[in-house]
Design a protein that fits this description.
six-stranded mixed sheet; three-stranded antiparallel sheet; 13 strands; 6 helices; single chain; tt1808, chain A
Amino acid sequence: METLTLNIPPAVGLTDEQFYQLCVANEPWQLELTKEGELIIMPPTGGESGIRNSDINIDLGLWNRKTKLGKVFDSSTEFKLPSGAYRCPDAAWVKRERWEALTQEEKRRFPPICPDFVIELRSESDSLEKLRAKMREYQNNGASLGWLIDPQTPLVEIYRTGLDVETLNFSVDNPPQLSGEEVLPGFVLDLTLILNP
């Protein structure tokens, strides 16, 4: 099934509470809301995408468990970005001090914060151009580092604050290792397992 987009007229709009209740009432669908009012309905992931997402979150979670520098979130976490958009990256990380500055209610619902680090993993139903726009949106809302991983092309695009996007084209037989740089010190993601689920 493909991703669907519905336009919500500005006169109708959705409050934060209404969007939250809409998401709760429509599990297992994953819903996102753009700042322009487009309601994006994403189908559940397939097996290979699920394996890839899981491997990414395991690696990021194990690194974070050792460093205790922040909090790791999986693809079911909805963030309310400063722009007003609601987005669910495939993997995300927030610095500990930024997370701890939120209230308990903000932590419990859809955290009103842009992650410091995000990963989007392209699945077969994803448009590469829409994922690129989503990555730019994270960047414009304060993400310091982001990786768009496309196993189909295969390529990785690296999004950094204030810099042009870096694109790594590679073969599935010789994938790169990605460094968390100064944002995630010591974190390295080996794409070998991600590309061969």
